[in-house]
């Protein structure tokens, strides 16, 4: 009888120890994270051969939808250049902002303590459950400020080949993504690519 109880307890103990982590015993750190700029196993790219470059224009108002990162038919990330028309050009409010409009999958970007989108470097690693994530509506990347010299301010002002970290969850499926941008100022930027990966 003692041998039977021991034989029964051993598999139960193994199962319980395996279930302590929702991810299971075979999930690795590499599977749980996404490295900025990574295009390896499990990462789906937009596949741009050349960047989309937006240079200074006189009418600064357009909307670029990176769109449906997880291919479910909804907009996930939107880049917006805005300009308040009316008044002199020197005092007009202008800027470059980013939004995560898809609340159905809780689309979010990695932000700092002030709620600004963090510009990450190539090779930086992110995880779904680490850091501060937020849904944003027109979070500023670079904005025109007539009172400052130079006239463009923001964390992304002057950023070259930096990455927006992005996450969302569609049902039980979790995604991490990166979006590569260069932002010379409020009116000049380049979009290079994005990569998205399903993570446990």
Can you tell me about this structure?
With 200 residues, the protein is mostly beta strands. It contains two helices and 14 strands. The protein has helices at 2-19, 29-32; strands at residues 33-35, 43-45, 52-54, 62-67, 77-83, 94-99, 108-110, 125-127, 133-134, 139-144, 152-153, 159-170, 173-185, 188-199. Strands 2, 3, 7, 9, 12, 13 and 14 form a seven-stranded antiparallel beta sheet that branches. It has a five-stranded antiparallel beta sheet with strand order 4-5-6-10-11, with no helix packed on it. A two-stranded antiparallel sheet has the order 1-8. Strand 10 and strand 11 (152-153) form a beta hairpin. It starts with a helix and ends with a strand.
Helix/strand-derived class? mainly beta
What is the number of independent domains? 1
Mean pLDDT: 80
Order of helices and strands: HHEEEEEEEEEEEEEE
> Could you say which overall geometry the principal axes of the C-alpha atoms support?
elongated
Major sheet summary line: 7 strands, antiparallel
Proportion of residues in β-strands: 35-45%
Radius of gyration: 22 Å
Helix tally equals 2
Q: Which spans of ≥5 residues are poorly predicted at pLDDT below 50?
A: 4-21
Q: Portion of residues in helices? A: 10-25%
Distance between the termini: 41 Å
Number of beta-strand segments = 14
